[in-house]
Amino acid sequence: MNRLSGYILNLYFRFPGIRLFFTMIIIFIIFSIISVALMISDEVKTDPVGWDKMKFLSPAGVPAKNVHAGRRGNLVAVVFEGSSRNKTVIYSTLSFDGGNSFTEPYIISEFASEISSNPRVAISGKGEIYITWYVISGDETDSRIFLSKSPDMGVTWSNPEVVSFGMQMEILPEPAFDDKERFHLFFTSYSGNSFNLFHASMDENGTLGKPAPVVKVKGTMRGAFSPAIKFVKNYIVVVCQGKEESYTDHLYFTISDDYGKSWSGMDRITTGKFNNQSPAIEVYDDTVYLVYMNNSDKNWSINMLRGYRLGSRWDPEPLKISTTNANCYSPDITISPDNEIFVTWHDLREKGSRIFYRKYSVKGKELLPEGKLSVKQTAGRDPLCLTTNKKLLVMWEDGGRIALNFNDNYVMAPSVYSSSHPEEKWSRENSAVVRWTKPYDESGVAGYAAITDKNPYTNPTIQNQRSEATSTLITGLDDGITYFHIRTIDGAGNMSRTVHYKLQVSSNPLATPVIVSSTHPQNLKSDLTDAVFRWAVNDSRRLKGFIYSISKDTALKPEKFLKDFEIRFSGLESGVYYFNLAAVSTTNQISRVSTYSFIVGEGVMDQDYLKNLANKDYDLKDDRKTISYVPSVEINLPFGESGIFNSGSFTALLKPRHIPLTNISGYSVVIGSEKKVPSDKINLMSGILNVEGLTKGDYTIGVKCRYFTIVNGKKRYSWTEPVYKSFSIVPDSGISPLDKIYAALMKKFKASPYVFSMIIFLFSATVIYRGYGSRISFYIKMINYKLRYYFG
């Protein structure tokens, strides 16, 4: 060992190339260790239960804040402000699918300002999008409100235009559209030695009218600002923050029932000597739900008040939404897709600010447990929530970017079909193969809950099918309608609506119809020449119709078809008549013939002939091909008729044909590269065959079934004829280990591009310097010498 190390050291010191090689190896090992440490030291993050993976709406590298959103149907418009090249930039991004995906952020305006511009957005029912913001001058003595419009759902945008009413300090614009698609603008302005809330609406010519104050500042009130606004048909509900003489903030309520032409008086709805700020409201079932900040416990908490009959009466005491002793800020509220009140805010209970939420059950009138929405170890603040058709969207500022998440409380139901029992069609088969397609879900499909019964409204609640399952075999179906119920269960534990698939089976002929007559008693005489017959059958659901015949002296084969349950024959001559009737099922099976004999006028009934009619064969044939009901077994492979599978492990189903399940003792199965006859020994008890460990090649499965029949009161055991099915195993070539390593490295690189770029740069610079540093230094000195020689 000493000689080997000495030899290596001798090479190291004698040859510069060897020294360079060993140095590069050492540098490579050091940087490899650093890279591995970075790759395995990522913080473990889990998405909040019931929510999707968080995504960002703002561009990378652009600090963003003050997000606001509006929606109309599946159109969602989001606006926020960013900072780029020492300028404030107003961005907008749109979603046309209810928040599933968003367009790239589009720059609406760009200007120099150091004060937040409070961008807001509103959408009309026609797809018009209006965005407003304001800019305060550098000396903070003047301000302007700006408006940009898109008449075509964001395809084109107008240049920003100044909206000015000639008032002092016009700030904090709040745009909105009413149910008549008329544009309204609320804003705050300094008037009468105080800040007040004003309202203006746009006429048919697109001109904003003269603004009028929403609030009459009087008494102990010294200003109104920070409004929460909600339109409900012709009503406009407003809750704003008012400053008192004692510098305490309280919340005030007012309402307009004529689209803002007039307003009710201002009612103070909060009490006490403590501050109440940042109102947010939602209206559901004529109740105003108000959430706000309150510091009565010496820390800021989130409270909720309810105003019944659109604010005619308010709760005497608020409900406390937040449960922590830490400060809570910026509440927002909406109605979730399940018609519950959803409240979100950010607080400081953990290191840094995080986004939390809580639901209030309207039906149960109770608060549900709190939930945490922030999962990254970055500051989350100023959340905003809104509901699309089936999703609850929450946006917030997360580490300087605008983040989005939506709840995962909806999962699509599978599409169910059956080739053996098509929907709304009857089948003679009492075994059904039911298949379904796997729906797409953001959190993945965990499995399915399925059950089969006669109840058309059953909702299965227990998962009993794996996520990979796409079919099931249902045996022993009775005549009539059986329902296969199935619903999807996703990764968040949500269940879809239940699909109630009808399996309509008519494997046996209907019972013989029962015939009655009010005019001619059976086998007796009647002088009436008009005969009326009515009949009934025990299972009308499987009934297609009837075939009948009426004849004199001799009973004829019924051949005429009708769907009615009554028939009349007129002008009958004297004699003995035979009315034959048989029921036809939906699968074209014909029942036994029912014969009704009667006498019109004079005639004699032949009793011997009547006895023979009971066993008479009318040679009635249905239009279905004759099936040989020979006991047999069918092999169902999971890869269908192609006979090619890419895995050596799979599950096959053995389906008995024309054998009651209770009469089956077991199966004899053999699998080999050549066709082999199964032995007379049972080696499989159930009809589920699990195949494992097959390698590439061609195989044949042979199966036969051991069953018994009852003959003269004794069991007689028999084997079915063997059945065979051939298939091939062709494994996927798969992905090479190098491809897997490359994919893993690229995934890590995309997650931390700046870190890996820096590592590669430092590694390259170190190698170049260590290997060629002296040469680079020599050439730099030589160039410097020549420059000084010729130009010095």
Structural topology:
Layout (H helix, E strand, L loop, with lengths): L1 H13 L1 H25 L14 E2 L7 E9 L2 E10 L2 E9 L10 E6 L8 E4 L5 E8 L6 E8 L10 E3 L4 E10 L5 E9 L2 E8 L10 E2 L7 E12 L2 E10 L4 E8 L10 E2 L7 E9 L2 E8 L6 E7 H4 L1 E2 L4 E2 L7 E8 L5 E7 L6 E8 L4 E2 L3 E2 L7 E8 L4 E7 L2 E6 L8 E3 L8 E2 L4 E6 L7 E9 L11 E2 L4 E4 L5 E11 L8 E7 L8 E4 L7 E2 L4 E6 L6 E10 L7 E3 L3 E4 L5 E11 L8 E7 L6 H7 L18 E5 L7 E2 L4 E8 L6 E9 L15 E4 L5 E15 L2 E6 L3 E7 L7 H15 L1 H39 L1
Parallel strand pairs: 32-38, 40-46, 48-54
Antiparallel strand pairs: 1-30, 2-3, 3-4, 4-5, 6-7, 7-8, 8-9, 10-11, 11-12, 12-13, 14-15, 15-16, 16-17, 18-19, 19-20, 20-22, 23-24, 24-25, 25-26, 25-27, 28-29, 29-30, 31-33, 33-36, 34-35, 34-37, 37-38, 39-41, 41-44, 42-43, 42-45, 45-46, 47-49, 49-51, 50-52, 52-53, 52-54
Task: Explain how this protein is built.
- It contains six helices and 54 strands.
- The protein is mainly beta and 792 residues long.
- The strands form 13 sheets. Strands 23, 24, 25, 26 and 27 form a five-stranded antiparallel sheet that branches. A five-stranded mixed sheet has the order 32-38-37-34-35, with no helix packed on it. Strands 40-46-45-42-43 form a five-stranded mixed sheet, with no helix packed on it.
- Helix 1 packs across helix 2 and helix 2 runs antiparallel to helix 6.
